[in-house]
């Protein structure tokens, strides 16, 4: 296809189909979280077992997303999307009718194998279909899908679980998935460049062990503790495999994942900012409902509703931010956005036992508004510096790093919170004992213990938010080094590219 003609008239209908497929796949990522207790009771499984419905989904994503660069270059975007959407639909159907827990796990894994390819494929199509000067607007609309879908998942599933059984969660998604396949079959055409490649299976194995090990280790650290052999063992094995994988890719002429794109300074900087910001963002998505439900005793549904305006603010702002990026560049947007993020995160570190519901909603929404000004502009600015041949590698690396950094950030901040709770709890108990006015009745002692536990948890959550504030400050400092970029005109192999330009 003539790239110049396509840039003049992008295939909006085709992109709309890809958007819808990505939306329902991303919505499905968080749709099941609220239903886990119900599923645990129905299939009579332990919390550590039922958690595999989300952990397993995440691991399959972590294994396949790094390989997406190979698939996008090897296969046409039409064939790849139809395959991914078919796998997702089959997994959805299997999960909906699952007679046993093992079948439900299998269904979720098949779902994940399809959804893992959606985001990198859509991003690559967007980068191909739009010229650099219009990519901000296009990626802003893409950000609407990426942010809104997983954010409304918990609220939607909370309402469904209150009124229907958990299988309805899959039943709602299924007809939309089938409809997407039908439209894609008739309307989708090929626009991304392809070339004949051979998959290096040893690289795929190393990538799977590396990213899978790190994701699993950090994701289970909060539950099992850092001292558990399964936690530090998988992290060590994952780190060794990942280092071996990177060294192997750097030596290969035609690597599965091209790490040499890190010689482009703005792409490297955008990756660093995205990693730091993901650590701060994903942790708040865990800490906020933890405070609302545990300290304030608010229901999961109302907890989800509290976070919904923040998700909607990000969704509404994403296309607007994209247009502003095209006009002003990423630097000024990122500085303003991260300043808002730092201030609001600091306010979240000052919560007390009776902070108002709408006050928390306002601060959380303002925080998400700030993040919406950073994520897509910074990522797009980095991708803009890459030659077209490197786009599949850039999108694969960005999506993988978001998953891994989110898992690492959540695990580290939950650990910091737990340690603070332990220390504060011991101090409060010692102070109560020293005061000598402890109640003598069993009911009084139980009430005092519950009160001290709540105060200790509040201090732990506030401390974790304060650390998250410092993390956001690091991201803010990095944004001052952002420059607008122009992609190289000469499409040479990555290893031969001359020093990229920045303006």
TrEMBL record:
Gene3D superfamilies: MFS general substrate transporter like domains, Multidrug resistance protein D
GO cellular component annotations of the record: plasma membrane
GO MF: transmembrane transporter activity
Residue ranges of the TM segments: 12-32, 52-72, 84-106, 112-132, 139-160, 166-186, 198-218, 230-247, 267-292, 328-349, 355-378, 464-482
Pfam annotation, one family: MFS_1
InterPro entries named among the record's database cross-references: EmrB-like (IPR004638), MFS (IPR011701), MFS_dom (IPR020846), MFS_trans_sf (IPR036259)
Subcellular compartments: Cell membrane
Domain of life: Bacteria
Major facilitator superfamily (MFS) profile domain: residues covered: 14-487
SUPFAM superfamilies membership: MFS general substrate transporter
PROSITE patterns per UniProt: MFS
UniProt keywords, alphabetically: Cell membrane, Membrane, Transmembrane, Transmembrane helix, Transport
Membrane topology listed for this record: Multi-pass membrane protein
UniProt keyword annotation of Membrane present: yes
Family affiliation: Belongs to the major facilitator superfamily. EmrB family.
Protein name: DMT family permease
Source species: Lederbergia lenta
Gene symbol of the encoding locus: stp
């Amino acid at each position: 296809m003539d790239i110049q003609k396509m840039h003049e008239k992008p295939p909006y209908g085709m992109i709309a189909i890809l958007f819808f497929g990505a939306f329902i796949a991303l919505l499905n990522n968080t749709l099941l979280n609220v239903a886990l207790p119900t599923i645990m009771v129905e299939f009579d499984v332990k919390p550590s077992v039922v958690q595999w419905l989300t952990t397993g989904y995440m691991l399959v994503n972590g294994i396949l997303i790094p390989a997406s660069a190979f698939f996008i270059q090897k296969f046409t975007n039409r064939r790849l999307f139809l395959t991914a959407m078919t796998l997702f639909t089959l997994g959805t159907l299997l999960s909906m009718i699952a007679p046993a827990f093992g079948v439900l796990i299998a269904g979720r894994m098949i779902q994940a194998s399809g959804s893992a390819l959606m985001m990198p494929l859509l991003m690559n199509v967007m980068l191909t279909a739009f010229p650099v000067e219009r990519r901000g607007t296009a990626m802003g609309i893409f950000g609407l899908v990426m942010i809104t879908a997983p954010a409304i998942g918990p609220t939607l599933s909370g309402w469904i679980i209150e009124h229907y059984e958990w299988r309805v969660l899959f039943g709602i998604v299924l007809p939309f998935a089938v409809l997407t396949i039908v439209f894609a079959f008739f309307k989708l055409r090929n626009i991304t460049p392809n070339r004949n490649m051979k998959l290096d299976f040893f690289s795929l194995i190393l990538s799977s062990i590396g990213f899978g090990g790190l994701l699993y280790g950090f994701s289970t650290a909060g539950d099992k503790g850092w001292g558990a052999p399964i936690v530090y063992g998988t992290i060590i094995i994952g780190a060794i495999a990942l280092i071996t994988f990177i060294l192997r890719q750097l030596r290969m002429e035609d690597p599965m994942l091209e790490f040499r794109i890190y010689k482009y300074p703005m792409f490297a900087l955008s990756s660093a900012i995205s990693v730091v910001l993901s650590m701060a963002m994903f942790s708040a998505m865990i800490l906020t409902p933890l405070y609302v439900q545990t300290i304030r005793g608010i229901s999961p549904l109302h907890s989800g509703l509290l976070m919904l305006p923040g998700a909607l603010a990000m969704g509404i702002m994403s296309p607007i931010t994209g247009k502003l990026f095209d006009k002003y560049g990423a630097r000024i947007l990122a500085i303003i956005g991260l300043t808002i993020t730092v201030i609001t995160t600091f306010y979240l570190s000052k919560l007390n036992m009776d902070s108002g519901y709408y006050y928390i909603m306002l601060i959380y929404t303002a925080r998400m508004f700030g993040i919406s000004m950073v994520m897509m502009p910074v990522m797009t600015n980095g991708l803009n510096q890459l030659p077209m041949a490197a786009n599949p590698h850039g999108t694969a690396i960005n999506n993988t790093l978001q998953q891994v950094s989110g898992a690492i950030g959540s695990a580290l901040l939950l650990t910091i919170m737990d340690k603070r709770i332990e220390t504060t709890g011991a101090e409060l108990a010692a102070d109560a004992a020293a005061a000598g006015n402890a109640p003598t009745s069993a009911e009084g002692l139980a009430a005092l213990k519950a009160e001290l536990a709540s105060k200790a948890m509040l201090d732990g959550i506030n401390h974790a938010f304060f650390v998250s504030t410092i993390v956001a400050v690091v991201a803010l400092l990095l944004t001052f080094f952002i420059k607008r970029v122009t992609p190289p005109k000469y499409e040479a192999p990555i290893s031969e590219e001359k020093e990229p330009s920045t303006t």
